[in-house]
Structures are given as C-alpha cells and as structure tokens.
Specification:
single chain; 184 residues; 3-stranded antiparallel sheet; 4 helices
Length: 184
C-alpha cells in the first residue's frame, strides 16, 4: 500500500511538472505572438497617425483661410493615404479600408489642385472618410468630432481639440459648430 501511495504521488508529481512545462511553453508562444501583434499594430498606428497629422495640417490651413498651405497638405495627405498598409486587417476590413482610402485620396488630390472654396467642398467628404478610417484602424489620440450645422446642410470634421475652429468658414465664422462626440 505504501508503494502504491508513493507511485501515485510520483505520478502526480510528474503530471504536474508536465502541465507546468506545457503551460510555460504556451505562455512563451502567446507572449511572442502578442509581441508580434503589438509590433504590427504599432506599424499601423504609425501609418494612421501620419495620415491624421496630414489631415489636421489640412484642417488647420482651412481654418486659417490658407488655400496654398491646404493644397500642400492635401498633396502630402494623398501620399500618406497611398502608403497605408492593409495587411494586418481582416479581408472585410481591407475591402472597407481600400474603398475609404481610394475616396479620401481622390479628395486629397482635388484639394491639392483647387481654390479654397472647392477645397472646403472636398474636405467635407474627406472628413467623413477620416472618421471611417479611424473607426476601423483606431488611434492613440483623443479626437473630437465637431459639427457645423450651417455649411452645406451640416458638415462634420475631426479635431484634436474640443475647442471649435471651423475649417468650412475659417475667419468668417470661426467658432460656428459644436463637439458632436469624443473618439477614444
């Protein structure tokens, strides 16, 4: 009986060690996969953040009634959009992002070639595209979706600040609008 208890204890010890070793390997693999995923997400974050920076430069140029800077920012934004990497997204997300990026790129390119009135028209749809892009890709930044009821039956845009600075009217109606929602 004593030998049986010893044998059972030894078997339990061996089984416990085997499970512990298996769990350790599993944790190591999971940790490595998490690191790889985090590195991929950081790459995406960097692309999204670059796009957002270019978008905000464009928005600020429109706020300041500067068509020349808006054109330059539109040109730079088009390049950033084309550089966006879709690989880490699901097939469905890739399809949606492709549509968003193609549309946004077209509007950014029009902004690069247009007068300020026409730039503002394209900025409206571009802002919708940016909101949709952020909804899929996410961002580390706290953003505010702002809304002006006066421009073209109501128009939204993204901002880093909750202080309203209207890109559709610039100095004519700088503070026309409100924060519609906070993102992130």
């Amino acid at each position: 009986m004593k030998n049986l208890k010893m044998s059972l204890a030894a078997m339990l010890l061996l089984v416990s060690l085997a499970y512990a070793q298996h769990d350790h390997k599993k944790m190591k693999t999971s940790h490595k996969m998490g690191e790889k995923k985090m590195m991929v997400n950081q790459g995406h974050d960097m692309k999204t953040e670059a796009i957002l920076n270019d978008y905000f430069n464009l928005k600020n140029a429109l706020v300041n009634d500067d068509g020349k800077k808006a054109a330059q920012a539109g040109s730079k934004l088009a390049i950033s959009l084309k550089a966006f990497d879709l690989k880490a997204y699901t097939a469905e997300q890739q399809k949606e992002l492709t549509d968003i990026i193609e549309d946004a790129t077209e509007h950014a390119e029009h902004i690069a070639k247009s007068d300020i009135g026409h730039q503002r028209e394209h900025f409206k749809t571009l802002s919708t595209d940016m909101t949709d892009l952020v909804a899929i890709s996410g961002t580390k930044q706290k953003l505010f979706e702002q809304f002006c009821p006066m421009y073209d039956k109501g128009s939204a845009w993204l901002s880093r600040s909750n202080e309203v600075r209207n890109p559709y009217y610039g100095s004519k109606m700088l503070k026309c609008g409100k924060v519609q929602k906070e993102i992130n």
